User: What shape does this take?
Amino acid sequence: MVYLDSNVFVFALLAKDELGNAAYQILANLDKIDAKTSCLTFAEVAWAVSRVAGVQTAAQACRAILAFPNLEVASVTYGDVWEMTRKMDAFNLRPRVRCTSLS
Assistant: This one.
């Protein structure tokens, strides 16, 4: 199983460089891999895309992700959040890193 972070979707849509092309190629080949993303990906994609390209484009991007036939979307459970807090404590992790540039 390959986990696809929100950045794969955001870069495929917005980045106009090698990173964007690489992300696009991953998505173009989803039929060849067992891929999964989180339901939280949609909020992250919607936020990033809406800031650069507007709310309607963000909604379209989220619908496009939902349309990938070979992409499983995993839910986040109560236990997942507890595990996150334990790892934040253990490794001094921040819950989120803000991306400031896409190109």
The longest strand covers residues 35-38. The chain has one domain: 2-91. DSSP finds five helices and three strands in the chain.
